[in-house]
Design goal:
Blueprint (H helix, E strand, L loop, with lengths): L1 E10 L12 H5 L4 H13 L20 E7 L2 E8 L5 H11 L4 E3 H10 L10 H11 L8 H13 L10 E7 L2 E8 L20 E4 L2 E7 L1 H6 L2 H7 L6 H10 L6 E7 L3 E5 L3 E9 L1
Parallel strand pairs: 3-4
Antiparallel strand pairs: 1-5, 1-11, 2-3, 2-6, 5-6, 7-8, 8-9, 9-10
The structure holds aspartic acid.
Aspartic acid binds next to strand 8 and helix 7.
């Protein structure tokens, strides 16, 4: 039996090499599983190579709205469309630990973050600004959000602009206890207010007494399949890796990846390149 912290850096883009995952799990490691997963996510949110926290993708309207979630068995906290904070995952932990709620969205999430001491912080980077500039070239003033979305989608599909896939996630099993965390700037192109799988319990994240599961990929499809709870509910019925392979198999060409730990296994699987990092300790 081992204590394990397993991290991913998103199911990958064809156009760019994967962010270097080296040492993230080791540096995030803590004897408390929740602290371990949050630490690992903070390291990746602070690294501009990932699409989470600093480096998050800019939406069609020019804003950055981020989603993040944390969970331990029976507990959950998430933020939806949060803006101008450095570490959405810490705000999600604050939602879980300091409020009677499980999800806070939009301006309410920002107000709460400020009350918890999260200072205003702009997560834009030269790379995300450059990508946004490329995206809005050729967009006419009078286009509706929907027309702009269709234009951006064409650019992405033709390979002219890169679709970011570097969402981050982590699961841990430490001394028999589980935790999971996930954070994203979202998929691209995105309208303001779009919410993916990440902050929705059972969709992009699930953690219970039998394990922890976190997903990455096209949030709309992951949410429709309630992917993480679906995987969790099958734990014990077959090897964990087989469950992941079967469930990702339903996605066909649609990008999806999962990392998971159960009482005695750990597994990761994706249908596109996905960076992972693992720290394990014998007990
Ligand atoms: N699942 C994320 C979202 O749709 C994106 C990703 O994992 O790449 O918001």
């Amino acid at each position: 039996m081992e204590n394990i912290l397993l991290c991913h850096g998103g199911v990958g883009s064809k156009n760019r090499s994967l962010p270097d995952m080296n040492g993230i799990a080791k540096n995030g490691w803590n004897q408390d599983p929740l602290t371990s997963v949050v630490n690992a996510i903070v390291i990746m949110e602070d690294d501009p190579n990932f699409n989470a926290g600093t480096g998050s993708v800019i939406r069609i309207d020019g804003s950055i709205q981020m989603d993040a979630a944390v969970s331990t068995p029976g507990r959950f906290g998430s933020v939806i469309g949060i803006e101008m904070v450095k570490n959405p995952v810490i705000v999600a932990r604050d939602v879980m630990e300091k409020t009677p709620h499980v999800m806070l969205a939009g301006s309410g999430a920002i107000d709460f973050a400020r009350r918890c001491g999260h200072k205003p912080y702009d997560p834009k980077t030269p790379r995300s600004i450059e990508a946004y500039k490329k995206m809005i070239e050729g967009i006419k003033e009078n286009m509706t959000e929907n027309e702009k979305y269709i234009e951006f989608k064409k650019l992405i599909d033709s390979g002219l602009i890169e679709e970011p896939h570097d969402t981050v996630g982590a699961v841990a099993r430490i001394n028999g206890k589980f935790a999971a965390a996930v954070s994203t700037g979202g998929a691209s192109p995105m309208m303001r207010g779009r919410v993916g799988d990440v902050p929705v319990p059972g969709a992009g994240i699930y953690c219970g007494d039998q394990g922890a599961v976190v997903a990455t990929g096209i949030g709309e499809d992951i949410a429709k399949r309630v992917l993480c709870y679906r995987i969790y509910s099958k734990i014990g019925s077959m090897p964990l890796k087989t469950i992941l392979e079967k469930e990702i198999g339903y996605f066909g060409e649609t990008l999806a990846g999962v990392i998971a730990v159960s009482r005695n296994e750990m597994a990761y699987f994706s249908n596109g390149s996905m960076g992972t990092d693992l720290y394990a300790e014998k007990i």
